[in-house]
Amino acid sequence: MNDTKAILDKFKTISQNLASMAAKHATKAAQSAKQSVARKAKTRATKVDNSEFIVALDIGTEFVKALIGKVGDKGNVEIVGVGRVHQSLNDMQAGAISDIAGVVENCDKALKQAEDQAGASPRMAVIGIAGELVKGTTTTVRFTRKSSENPLDIEEVERIVRLVQEKAEDHAKTQLSLELGGKTPDVKLVNSALVSIDIDGYKVTNPIGFQGKEVLVQLYTAFAPLIHIGALEKTAQELDLDLLAVAAEPFAVSRGVIGDDPNATMSAILMDVGGGTTDIAVIDEGGVQGTKMFGIGGRAYTRAVERDLGVDFTQAEQYKLALGSSMLSQNKVPAVEKALQKTLDVWISGVELALSEFDKLDQLPHQVLLCGGGSSLEMLMDELQNTSWYKELPFTRKPMVRHIAPDQVVGIVDSTGKANDHTFITAMGLLRVGMDTLQQSGTSQTDSVREKLDRMLRV
């Protein structure tokens, strides 16, 4: 276990160094990106400010995926355009943008594919953010009210929520400071969601009007360093997009499978295995308990094949993808499997360590739902389904492991037939976040208390 932890620490150190390099090069890349501003603005000059459409940009380490969704009148979104473009090796590092100009170019191509299919060029966009330096957790705070006989009102609940958010921000800064060797970066709240409110031991869905002395609030928050958010904002600016929201990608996946039902009781572990990182979210009885990320994704497996077989990255990727098919010669199969297994062992240990940090839960959900291109590796699914990796964790029974299907994303329907597998789930979740944000941004005298609370938490 010590050897495994040492390897994980090495991966973590590498990821942090890469993230630091990305931050240092962001300004230089931004200057390079300025050269293409005029061309991009001209290319996208025909865009229309149409609130009927939302753009979701999933800027992954391996691929940029762009979805255009048409907003329906019943809180649903129809996917009418899909774009997908491969990223270069140097465009992203550790889940963060390292070459703004390169990423803008790829996003522009993906958006053009989606716009040509949709026949529309909308402006409103939701962009996902990932990486080890994105900190998502559920904070629990207990408040003692001075006047327990007075009913709670919206103003008092708002004050309580703000205090919880401030406490969560301090916690995120402390975590990042420890991981960055004492440096305290500026952070920004990217997502916030109410998990639960208890009054004097009774769980309530609507706290307004209740009397009581002890108020216990559980609030999920996700914070990210400003340097990473700034790179995404710059990318949106270069693409002439209006940034509706930036969403932590595991949170987006969670919103996608939970939907907007305040009475949802779903419990599951969600794993988004991308090219550069693995993002994990734990949902308990409809509430996001927290998100964890570590820097091992699909590229780590390819690098292992590249290193062990002495081939270049492109050839290693071909070997990895061909495993299990007739396209890979049988004499190479044992060497490729051996190289992949070494990284897989470290990845599984990373999953175990991440899940062990959810120590406030008496037991972990037995549903394990996967998405992302990195989860397409057959050996990875086999490891999760057929080994005893879960034995040291608080599961009450063997986990059920499967991919998330596109039709499981609540309120999102694909009319193109192209967003057709688990690799598009994150982008579909971003559309869900966009839909939620639009619904929460309106003001009305008839809004429910829950809608007012959701609007209060919107960032």
Provide keyphrases for this structure.
459 residues; Nucleotidyltransferase, domain 5; alpha/beta; six-stranded mixed beta sheet; 25% strand; nine-stranded mixed beta sheet
Layout: helices, strands, pairs:
Elements lengths: L1 H33 L2 H7 L9 E7 L3 E9 L5 E10 L5 E2 L2 E2 L2 H19 L5 E6 L5 E10 L9 H26 L7 E13 L2 E3 L9 E12 H13 L3 E7 H10 L9 E6 L4 E7 L2 E8 L3 H12 L3 H10 L10 H24 L10 E5 L6 H9 L13 E4 L8 E3 L10 H17 L7 H9 L2
Parallel strand pairs: 1-6, 3-17, 6-11, 12-15, 15-16
Antiparallel strand pairs: 1-2, 2-3, 4-5, 7-10, 7-14, 8-9, 8-10, 12-13, 13-14
Helix pairs in contact: 1-3, 1-5, 1-9, 3-5, 4-12, 6-11, 7-8, 7-9, 9-10
For the biggest sheet, the summary is:
9 strands, mixed
Backbone CA Rg = 22 Å
Query: What is the CATH superfamily classification of the domain at 2-131 and 227-258 and 410-441?
Result: ATPase, nucleotide binding domain
What is the CATH C level class of the domain at 2-131 and 227-258 and 410-441, in words?
Alpha Beta
What is the structural class? alpha/beta
Description:
This protein is of the alpha/beta class. Among the domains are: 2-131 and 227-258 and 410-441, 2-Layer Sandwich (Nucleotidyltransferase, domain 5); 294-403, 2-Layer Sandwich (Nucleotidyltransferase, domain 5). The chain contains twelve helices and 17 strands. The protein has helices at 2-34, 37-43, 100-118, 154-179, 226-238, 249-258, 298-309, 313-322, 333-356, 378-386, 425-441, 449-457, and strands at residues 53-59, 63-71, 77-86, 92-93, 96-97, 124-129, 135-144, 187-199, 202-204, 214-225, 242-248, 268-273, 278-284, 287-294, 367-371, 400-403, 412-414. A nine-stranded mixed sheet has the order 9-8-10-7-14-13-12-15-16, with helices on both faces. A hairpin with a 2-residue loop joins strand 8 and strand 9 (202-204). It is globular.
